[in-house]
Design a protein that fits this description.
Elements: H1 2-29, H2 32-56, H3 77-108
Length: 110
């Protein structure tokens, strides 16, 4: 009975991966990414025209009026803790490696 449950889980996982593959393949085939890039460039061209018009009219302009920011901050407390831990480990490892290399150099060089 255990073998049947394991096979069912395996088949389900394979089917799930296949469905994900199909979704990615179809989205690539329908040029979804290219369409998104095209709409972004169209918005940029429209903002460039608006900028040029405002300059020719002598208005005070700021670059922030014409650039759209799509930045989304996905950080949370867990990711911030992980980031800080990674920085701490990196700092400790760098100091440790430098000290180890300094010790080795004193052993082999005069």
């Amino acid at each position: 009975m255990e073998e049947v449950k394991n096979n069912d889980k395996f088949i389900t996982a394979i089917l799930l991966l296949f469905v994900i593959f199909l979704i990615i393949y179809i989205s690539n085939g329908t040029d979804y990414y290219e369409y998104k890039a095209y709409t972004k460039s169209t918005l940029t061209k429209e903002n460039m025209k608006k900028f040029e018009k405002d300059i020719s009219e002598g208005k005070n302009v700021s670059i922030n009026q014409y650039i759209e920011s799509n930045y989304i901050d996905y950080s949370n407390s867990i990711s911030n803790i992980g980031y800080e831990m990674g920085k701490t480990v990196e700092h400790v490892m760098n100091k440790g490696i430098k000290k180890a290399l300094k010790l080795l150099s004193t052993l082999f060089y005069e």
